Amino acid sequence: MGCDARVRLESPVLCAGELARVGADVRATLEDADRRLTRFDPGSDLCRLNADPREVVPVSALVARLARAAVWAGAASGGLVDATLTGEIEAAGYAASRAGLEPGSLSDALARAPERRPARPRERPGFAAISVLDGDRVTRPPGVRLDSGGFGKGLAADVAADLVPSGVRYAISAGGDLAVGGGDWEVAVTGASSGAEVHRLRVRGGVATSGVYERLWRRADGSYAHHLLDPATGEPAWTGLVSATAVAASALEAEVLAKTALLSGPVAAHRVLRRGGGVLQHEDGRVEVIAPAPVVRLPARATAPRSAA
Amino acid sequence: MTASLRRPLAVAAVLFVLILAFLAGRVHAGTDPAQVTAPAADAVQPATPGTDPYDGFAPGAPPQDAAPDQGGVPSPGGQDLDPPVTQAS
Fold first, then answer.
1. I want to staple A103 with a disulfide (CB 3.0 to 4.6 A). Which of A130, A216, A251, B27 is the partner?
2. Is residue A306 assigned to a domain?
3. Does A242 map to a domain?
4. Of the partner residues B19, B50, B56, the one whose CB lies closest to the CB of residue A6
């Protein structure tokens, strides 16, 4: 998937050596996920599935989880987060990894971008034709190819977080999408233009940011493209937002919410983010904080036995 | 009203008043437990005193091919660590 990863672990119980061992396990899991889910290596589990001419294909547990996530994300986002736009993203100019490449100019891209409008789902989305059998086989019409770019990082962070023992505070970042737990964390949100911190969120579970500015390139015809596509057109979506940050129960869910918010545009994004809260960054530089819906947690009811009197 | 209903109703009323007072106190104090509104220096997430931190894949050094970011800068003694960062990638 081609992204940086960071892990922070804190524990009042485990010593530094034990934490380092947990950290090594987490690192190995993230690297394994990267190898299996990249679409830039023909030998990866994901590429082998995509190239397989059979309708029913045996897959690894991680790819099965990705396929399940693709179906869930498509349905939960109303078709906006469509993990089967692999051909379209390649046609847009993203056929090879862009890790380490300098992104194009955001201001120039916004000046040349077409009319802003919310993205729309496809009439017959590819994810609707995917299903997972017994956790180890994927069925889909041959030719429907999965792309891990939509939420592979969040999924990898969640899988790695499953390894952390209880009693350890952890923050696992896969390309800026975080799984955090063991307590509340404050997570900084960076500005799309400046890269400086623009807000700080309190998070337990997951937080992710989706933006048009990091994987941004100029095409041969002078137009700019990025990796967040409007499923209805197969072209990069220009909605009026340059980034959306979402807080949710897991990194995967946060990543899907963030993409849904960005693709929905500035108005509908409020509805998308209102449950867990988040941050919207507009093209004009405005930073808008969406407060999460209030939650009142009452103490659990005591279950003491009734008096016999 | 029967005697059997009086007690649960009284308990419910007392609970309601207590919860209302608690929420009113939180609002009055200006705190929102789910939202920190500004990047203030004194809002940095500190490591829990007495804890052993593990920060980064190789403590003291960033992983290869990666520039250190705000979420991976080790801090001597595990205190005053910068918060993790979410960003588009």
1. A216
2. no
3. yes
4. B56
The residue of chain A nearest to residue B51, with distances taken between CA atoms, is A12
CATH of the domain at A110: 3.10.520.10
CB contact under 8 A, B36 and A207: no
pLDDT at res. B4: 78
Q: What is chain B's Cα-based Rg?
A: 23
Number of domains in chain A: 1
- Residue B3 CA to residue B13 CA, distance in Å, equals 16
Closest chain B residue by Cα to residue A189: B86
Pairing of strands A56-58, A137-139: antiparallel
Per-residue pLDDT tens for A59-103?
Answer: 999 999 999 999 999 999 999 999 999 999 999 988 888 877 888
Residues in chain B: 89
Q: With an 8 Å Cβ cutoff, are A294 and B88 in contact?
A: no
Say if A93 falls within a structural domain. Answer: yes
CB-CB contact of A227 with A116 (8 Å): no
**In this predicted model, what pLDDT tens digit does every residue of A166-197 receive, in sequence order?**
999 999 999 899 999 999 999 999 999 888 99
